[in-house]
Amino acid sequence: MEKIAKTNAARLLDAAGIRYELVPYEVDENNLDAGHVAAQLGEDIDQVFKTLVLRGDKSGLFVCVMPGSFEVDLKIAARISGNKNCEMIHVRELLPLTGYIRGGCSPIGMKKPLPTFIHESALLHDFIYISAGVRGLQLRLDPRDLIRFTASGIYPV
Question: Which single residue of 85, 90, 92, 102 has CA 20 to 30 Å from 111?
Answer without folding.
Answer: 85
